[in-house]
Amino acid sequence: MSEKRDLVLTTVQGVDFDYLAPFVSSLKRTGFRGRLVVFASAMKGDAVSQLERHGVTVVSFPFISKRLREFFFWPFWPFWRRLFALNAFPEFKEKLAHVALPLFYRRHLIYLQYLRAHRLEYDRVFLTDARDVFFQADPFSWNPPPGLHLFLLDSSHTVQASQLDVNWTKNQFGRTDASRHLDKIASCAGTTFGDTEEVITYLTKMIATSLGAKNLRRVTGGDDQGVHNYLIYENLLPVVTLHPNRRSAVLTTTTMTMSEIPLNAAGLITSESGEVIPVIHQYDRLPELKQHLLGRLNDTGLKG
């Protein structure tokens, strides 16, 4: 089970309390004993107050407009990319990176800076999406061993099947032989477990790789999954375990149908071996599954 030195990190922008209520409520019901930190941009004060009343630590960060990136960074990206590649000026470069990177990439820098400042306070970390994540059990109840733990999609969801991954592998990292990776099962970047030091290593590589893109203008929301898979299949992560879908602590349901999702007598989703899966990801892609999970919250869901 979780301990006080366990940490869950997530990022949201421009959302209200109701957006996060299923995520927070389902986590709270599991008996999670660690800390949940929500990095929030453009969140109204009443939503922040509601979250804090439920034990959530809310850390605000400034919104950076896309227009600023379009004007200041994208036309001159070859220059900025060379600057980011230099070993000098780390603090200055990170300030620039907050402006240059879209939120899907910037969230990794936000996490990295937070963990650097609090690295001695936590032993285990879970980086996660918020909108489409539901907790059936304490996310640390499977007691992940040291190292980094990443989660694969179903075997049919290869790198080749994901246009995001293909774009990154072929277009952004042209020096890479993409054909070596296209038949590999893609890993989802929305859920990542690890001990604190390995997560810091992972985030450091995610940021450095993202800032080495040939052209940030060509990236779209979610393309950080391409970077994530690039690091995996180029063997750039030293201590990593890849967990198959349907047989691990995270179930990603995006390619599944409701008939493929096993339920036990209590209505909980189980793995192929019959164990309750702590984290259900992308459940909102299946309306019937969303209705089933949110229905389980009943009257015990969070209220303002």
Word description of this protein:
With 304 residues, the protein is α/β, with parallel strands linked by helices. The protein has one domain (6-63, 101-300): Spore Coat Polysaccharide Biosynthesis Protein SpsA, Chain A (Alpha-Beta Complex). The protein contains ten helices and ten strands. It has helices at 17-29, 45-53, 66-72, 77-85, 90-100, 103-118, 163-172, 196-210, 224-233, 287-297; strands at 6-13, 35-41, 57-60, 124-128, 133-135, 148-152, 187-195, 240-243, 250-252, 279-281. Helix 6 packs antiparallel against helix 8 (196-210) and helix 8 (196-210) packs across helix 9. The longest helix is centred in the middle third of the chain and has 16 residues, at 103-118. The model has no long low-confidence stretch (mean pLDDT 89).
